[in-house]
Structures are given as structure tokens and as C-alpha cells.
């Protein structure tokens, strides 16, 4: 980045903060509007599995089609928002977070199971519109479309949370995630990922304006921080500070996001806050994922979804996670803690093997096991290099669990 670019970014950030001090909203400036427009009009490929063709779609197109059909089915959409790391990127281009997934939130009135099913059917039916003309669409069922183009589906319905998620696949990790929210108690994990940008005014501009946008002619677009104070959250993003509210409410996956922030150079404001936050993160992770099999599935899924094109950073991430779990886990029995650390270490060694990297022997413990035909249990003709950090073999699973007090 040139010196001129750097000074421009600083001015932009300062301007937004001064406009929103003490409030949770801000009006986007022209540079931010341009970045938002670029993201919404960029053509994103949705890759099909097997022989299914790739769908080419702009985010604004899929939003328009889905929203109009929801209204046709009498499901009122209050507004549409861009969420997550993409929103953070728009507000501060050099945030250090990067962004892959495109998180689009439809704030809608969905009161019953039938509404969730209707939304699912609408999204799958909309995919037909983006298929090439040469495809015979009459023979393609919703189930076929789901198997071909959907990365994951999630639905949560309880007293405090009513929402669903449909993630459309992209082989480069840039999934288009459509989230339909009636109510959601916790909408963020950390202040730096708490931003939501309301898209309605820009979407209306696309529909109604005959002239292109310009610095003197563009819609008013509002950003919001669901963390609370917009200026404070933006300051955290600018200075790479990890901060949150009520960390005990963050789900178990927050530990994985926290370690990802650490690897990207983010730090807690103070050491005492960091230690307290890490204990909360670890405790909730083991509450939500008490079984070693669940932990492995969660970790493998996180690595697959968040490190596309960043495979060289997986090892650093796993070693950071290993250190946090080792230092801050206080609610497990010793053997459970060891088997989780062993799992993380095993995944780290696997990452090195996949990358065909020969690690520095000062950073890995090598195990020379006896040959399989040696039946004597006392046979000990192997050598263990006791060097930190220790990569222990994965321990057998245990069913015992100590709840946190």
C-alpha cells in the first residue's frame, strides 16, 4: 500500500468513528459504499458436485429472487443485511480478518415449522433460475439440487433462537450463506465480527435508478454493530483488539474463532482479560463438544471451511489452539485433557504430512514404535525424543466428564 493509500484509510476510519461515537450505527462513506457495491455485483460461482454445472450468480441477484418469493409466500422480510467478515472488510479494508464466506441475513417473520420449510423450498427452487439454459430443469428435484449445490443446512428453533442457514458451495471457500432470522439472542462472538450492513437502500437503488452511483449520487447505507458502540468496535477492528461482552454466552465454536484471531495477529486488550476469556472459551467448547469424536469432527470441519487457499497457516493455527487448550482448560479430568491435546497434535502432524513439510526436529516429538509382530508387552526397543511441544499419540476415548462449576 502506498503512503497516500495508507493516509486515506486512516482518514476514512477516523471519520466513521467521529460520526458514531456512543451509538451502534454509522452511515457508510463513499469508499465503503464502493466496496459494498463491488461485493454485491461480483459474480460468484456456486460449484455443483459430480456432473452438475457451475451456477454463476451475483449476491444481489440471489437476494432479489429469494426476497421476492418470500413475500409472495406471505413471509414478511423486515430487512436484508450483510454480516460477518465481509461487513468488517467493507468498513475497514485492511482489517486483517480477510473474508471468504458471504453472509447474507434475511430478517423475517417465521413463526412456525411450515415457514422454515417454505424458505428452504424457495432457496432450492431459486437455484433453478441460475442453471444454464441447456439444462432440462423439469427433471431436477429439490433433493437433487440440495445434494448438488448445498454445503450445509442448519435450523435452530427454541425459546430464544429461531433461525435457519443454507450455505451454497464454492470450491474456493467463498460460500454464499443465506441466513433467515426471526430471532437470535447472540448475534456476534467478538466486537470485530459484530458488524451488519443494511442493504435495503442499495438494493432499491439497483432497481430504481437509471444512473450509476457516484460520490455525489448514491444511497444512504447504514452499518450497525450488534456488539454495541460502533466507534469502539471499529477501533478494535482497526487496532486488532479481541474484545467481547458476556463471553459465557458464546457457543463452543468461539474457541476456534478466538484462536483464528490470534493467528491473524489480534490480541486481547490485557493479559488478565486474555486469560479469563480463554478459560471461558475452553469451558464452553468442552461443554458443547464433550466427546472426542465430536471434537475431531468440529476441528476438521473448521479447518476445511476456513483455510481454503491458506493451507500453510493450518499448522500455526493448530499449535495456537494446542497452547490455549493446554494453558486454559480447567474443567476436564487429566486423561480427557490429554486426549484432546493429542487430537490437536495429531491433526497438526497430518497437516505437515499433507503439505509434505519436514518439520524442525526441535518442534516435534518422534515415536519409534516396536514392530507389529512383537507380542511381548514389555518390549521397549524404541526411543522417544522428549522435546516441546509434545505431539502425543491420540488416547482412547473416555466417557467420564466433569462439569464446570
TrEMBL record:
<dbReference type="Pfam" id="PF07984">
    <property type="entry name" value="NTP_transf_7"/>
</dbReference>
<dbReference type="GO" id="GO:0048255">
    <property type="term" value="P:mRNA stabilization"/>
</dbReference>
<keyword id="KW-0808">Transferase</keyword>
<dbReference type="GO" id="GO:0003723">
    <property type="term" value="F:RNA binding"/>
</dbReference>
<dbReference type="GO" id="GO:1990817">
    <property type="term" value="F:poly(A) RNA polymerase activity"/>
</dbReference>
<dbReference type="InterPro" id="IPR012937">
    <property type="entry name" value="TET5"/>
</dbReference>
<protein>
    <recommendedName>
        <fullName>polynucleotide adenylyltransferase</fullName>
        <ecNumber>2.7.7.19</ecNumber>
    </recommendedName>
</protein>
<feature type="region of interest" description="Disordered">
    <location>
        <begin position="1"/>
        <end position="20"/>
    </location>
</feature>
<feature type="compositionally biased region" description="Low complexity">
    <location>
        <begin position="7"/>
        <end position="20"/>
    </location>
</feature>
<comment type="similarity">
    <text>Belongs to the TENT family.</text>
</comment>
Amino acid at each position: 500500500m502506498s503512503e497516500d493509500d495508507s493516509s486515506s484509510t486512516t482518514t476514512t476510519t477516523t471519520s466513521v468513528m467521529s460520526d458514531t461515537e456512543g451509538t451502534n450505527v454509522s452511515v457508510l462513506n463513499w469508499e465503503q459504499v464502493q466496496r459494498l457495491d463491488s461485493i454485491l455485483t461480483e459474480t460468484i460461482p456456486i460449484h455443483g458436485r459430480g456432473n452438475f454445472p457451475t451456477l454463476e450468480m451475483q449476491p444481489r441477484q440471489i437476494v432479489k429472487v429469494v426476497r421476492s418469493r418470500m413475500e409472495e409466500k406471505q413471509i414478511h422480510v423486515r430487512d436484508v443485511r450483510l454480516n460477518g467478515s465481509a461487513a468488517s472488510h467493507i468498513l475497514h479494508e485492511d482489517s486483517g480478518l480477510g473474508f471468504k464466506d458471504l453472509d447474507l441475513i434475511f430478517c423475517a417473520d417465521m413463526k412456525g415449522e411450515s415457514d422454515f420449510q417454505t424458505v428452504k423450498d424457495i432457496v432450492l427452487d431459486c437455484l433453478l433460475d441460475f442453471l444454464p439454459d441447456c439444462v432440462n430443469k423439469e427433471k431436477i428435484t429439490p433433493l437433487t439440487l440440495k445434494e448438488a449445490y448445498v454445503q450445509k443446512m442448519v435450523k435452530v428453533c427454541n425459546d430464544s433462537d429461531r433461525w435457519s442457514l443454507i450455505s451454497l458451495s464454492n470450491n474456493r471457500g467463498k460460500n454464499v450463506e443465506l441466513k433467515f432470522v426471526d430471532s437470535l439472542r447472540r448475534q456476534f462472538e467478538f466486537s470485530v465480527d459484530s458488524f451488519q450492513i443494511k442493504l435495503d437502500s442499495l438494493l432499491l437503488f439497483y432497481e430504481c435508478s437509471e444512473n450509476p452511483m457516484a460520490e455525489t449520487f448514491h444511497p444512504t447505507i447504514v452499518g450497525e454493530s450488534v456488539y454495541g458502540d460502533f466507534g469502539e468496535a471499529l477501533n478494535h477492528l482497526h487496532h486488532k483488539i479481541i474484545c467481547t461482552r458476556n463471553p459465557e454466552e458464546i457457543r463452543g465454536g468461539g474457541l476456534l474463532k478466538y484462536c483464528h484471531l490470534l493467528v491473524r495477529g489480534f490480541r486481547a486488550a490485557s493479559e488478565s482479560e486474555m486469560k479469563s476469556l480463554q478459560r471461558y472459551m475452553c469451558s464452553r467448547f468442552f461443554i458443547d463438544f464433550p466427546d472426542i469424536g465430536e471434537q475431531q469432527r468440529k476441528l476438521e470441519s473448521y479447518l476445511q471451511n476456513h483455510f481454503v487457499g491458506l493451507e500453510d497457516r493450518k499448522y500455526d493455527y493448530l499449535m495456537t489452539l494446542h497452547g490455549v487448550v493446554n494453558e486454559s482448560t480447567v474443567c476436564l479430568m487429566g486423561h480427557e485433557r490429554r486426549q484432546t491435546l493429542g487430537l490437536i497434535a495429531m491433526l497438526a502432524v497430518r497437516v505437515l504430512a499433507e503439505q509434505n513439510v519436514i518439520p524442525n526436529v526441535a518442534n516435534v516429538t518422534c515415536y519409534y514404535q516396536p514392530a507389529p509382530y512383537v507380542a511381548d508387552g514389555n518390549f521397549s526397543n524404541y526411543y522417544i525424543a522428549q522435546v516441546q511441544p509434545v505431539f502425543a499419540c491420540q488416547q482412547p476415548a473416555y466417557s467420564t466428564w466433569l462439569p464446570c462449576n
